[in-house]
Amino acid sequence: MKLVSKRIIGVLLVFVMVIALAGCGDKTEEAAEVTEVGTVEETETNAEATVAETGDEATIAFICADMGNPSQAYAASLFETYAKDYNLKAVVFNAAGDAQLEASSVQQAIAQGVSAIYVNPNDINAILPALQEAKDAGIIVGMFSSDVPVGSEDLRDFFVGVDDNQAGVEAANAFIANFPDGAKIVEVGGQAGHDAQIKRHGAFEPVISNSNIEVLDSQACDQWSTDQALAIMDDFIVKYGDDIEGVFCHWDGGLTGVIQALDAAGMDTKGMFLVGIDGSQSGVQQVMDGTQDLTIGQDFMEMSKKSLELTRAVLDGETVTTQNFIPLMLVTPETIDDFTFPEW
Q1: Strand 34-35 and strand 328-331: pairing?
Q2: Which tens digits make up the pLDDT trace of 235-252?
Q3: Phi-psi region for residue 278, left (φ > 0), alpha (ψ -120 to 50) or beta?
Q4: Where does the UniProt annotation place the signal sequence (predicted)?
Q5: Report field, pTM of the whole predicted structure over 0.85
């Protein structure tokens, strides 16, 4: 099947996003390149009754789902670096991809008497009892990058991250724009049970199913593991071979494994349409190399600073917005020169 020019696709993506976002508020400093796709929920919270005296230094805990995940390790380093700017002191717990260990890490943080925790959960349901314990102890609970399930919002004071539903929609729209005459693709999902995996797949599926693009197969990983993504792609290649014309992978590091599997099978990655999410070093480099067509980027620097800002505000008795979406960034071969190469 003949592909539409990737340069044309890049232009179409930018054009579609500009039209969709007409009338939106101010963008970030990268105005022309940073696409604001999230909205801010109006619900607010006031945790004044549980906060420390205004301006006092407070200890906070970043509960990292897995320090082996580059994005989370980078975020942890940002919390440690910038906490002092908000008169905070950060400690980091590594759950190493284990939902039970993450819950016990929350309990350890409670026992240490921290004023606030930030959680990126391995399993959004398994973490809920631990979050309830933190709330009962009067600790500020921030969800970082991944949120609690719908209906459990009372267990956290705020969420900061990207809109993973919108990320899934953007991925689907990219395939639809690139394949106006239809195509056959596969989906390699992120860590099963993780909020990002659930939302990225859940938003991608209905959009793509209402197009003339056929998803041959979809499978999630047990962890955000490049090796697992490679293994899943190996299976897809055995099952579907040259019928595969595109791949949606939930994270750029996983797409690295996908590309390795395609290369090992002698398949032309530059003749396919490959989409990932994160805007990580691997994803941006793959876009630069021409092996990845789009990475839907996240701004972890802004996420981390926003989380710290909200914590200081709650500690000082201020009312804050509870749901805070940080704009996504669409990085294509046509726009890549306008973006700063990521640190993670």
Answers
A1: antiparallel
A2: 999 999 999 999 999 999
A3: left
A4: 1-22
A5: no
